[in-house]
């Protein structure tokens, strides 16, 4: 399955481009899906270590607010993406030094607590964050080029797609490296890792910082696409949505988060349009079906169809 993963990635990218051309309104939906898929890559890393972060929306919201606060000064999408990645990474290092000491439910709930503290600050510090009203993000130059609205949307879609492919390749290499193998060892034999001289806490911390970086990048892309940032990006339901996508897509490969994000956004859009009062039930039913009949998620299903094991 790993051999055909690059081919499937190219096919998925081509399908997204074709869909965005055929139905321009899908460009927004697919860009958001790519941004969330990038953020879910970080959750996938932590799942390899057997840890679930119930508060990863913290880094998505942080990246989005970096864009909102710095846009009037930097005023370039590329620079803002870099700033969001660096800022989220530093925040992830600060928090990770604390939470990497814990495992299982304690790890998940501590992340959730941090996320809700951040949400409360965004809500209460109205004179800085404008509270629940949020902050509007204007159309900005991309790599120094001033663009109209349509060209800007295409540029952000292209950047999101390029980042999805690039980060997917990098994390695939990371998971195949000794650090990635050690990360998987935390889930099954952490004590043995320590006896071998591999610091499990350091391995988990490095993965946590990487997950924060990709979360910040995803949040920055969401801010540039929706052009409106609110504290709801850091609410606990936003973190639950990321975990939902991770389960739906499957954590067996780096393509899983993007399959899950695309399916989630498309199901939500069409369900909300057709059944305005029951779209949450449809999403829940979709997740239930995946859990019952495809525990490996959409990536696992693709693996079985391809005759592999989804790994």
Automatic annotation (TrEMBL):
Molecular function as annotated in GO: branched-chain amino acid transmembrane transporter activity
Localization per Swiss-Prot or TrEMBL: Cell membrane
Chief place where the protein resides: membrane
Record's keyword annotation contains NAD: no
Gene Ontology CC: plasma membrane
Lipid bilayer topology: Multi-pass membrane protein
Transmembrane segments: 54-71, 77-98, 105-122, 154-175, 196-222, 242-267, 279-302
InterPro entries, sorted: ABC_transp_permease (IPR001851), LivM-like (IPR043428)
Entry keywords, A to Z: Cell membrane, Membrane, Transmembrane, Transmembrane helix
Protein name: Branched-chain amino acid ABC transporter permease
């Amino acid at each position: 399955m790993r051999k055909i993963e690059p081919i499937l990635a190219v096919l998925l990218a081509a399908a997204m481009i074709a869909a965005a051309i055929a139905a321009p309104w899908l460009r927004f939906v697919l860009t958001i899906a790519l941004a969330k898929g990038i953020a879910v890559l970080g959750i996938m890393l932590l799942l390899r270590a057997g840890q679930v972060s119930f508060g990863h929306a913290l880094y998505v919201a942080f990246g989005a607010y970096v864009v909102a606060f710095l846009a009037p000064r930097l005023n370039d999408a590329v620079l803002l993406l870099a700033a969001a990645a660096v800022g989220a990474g530093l925040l992830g290092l600060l928090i990770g030094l604390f939470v990497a000491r814990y495992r299982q439910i304690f790890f998940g709930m501590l992340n959730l607590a941090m996320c809700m503290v951040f949400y409360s600050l965004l809500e209460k510090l109205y004179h800085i964050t404008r509270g629940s009203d949020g902050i509007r993000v204007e159309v900005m130059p991309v790599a120094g080029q001033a663009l109209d609205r349509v060209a800007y949307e295409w540029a952000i879609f292209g950047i999101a797609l390029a980042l999805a492919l690039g980060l997917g390749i990098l994390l695939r290499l990371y998971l195949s490296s000794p650090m990635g193998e050690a990360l998987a060892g935390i889930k099954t034999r952490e004590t043995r890792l320590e006896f071998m001289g591999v610091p499990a806490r350091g391995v988990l911390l490095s993965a946590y910082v990487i997950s924060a970086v990709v979360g910040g990048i995803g949040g920055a892309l969401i801010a540039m696409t929706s052009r409106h940032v609110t504290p709801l990006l850091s609410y606990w339901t936003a973190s639950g949505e990321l975990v939902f996508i991770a389960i739906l897509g499957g954590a067996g490969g780096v393509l899983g988060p993007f399959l899950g994000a695309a399916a989630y956004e498309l199901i939500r859009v069409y369900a909300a349009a057709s059944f305005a009062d029951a779209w949450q039930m449809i999403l829940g039913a979709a997740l239930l079906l995946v859990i019952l009949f495809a525990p490996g998620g959409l990536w696992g299903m693709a693996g079985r169809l391809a005759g592999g094991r989804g790994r």
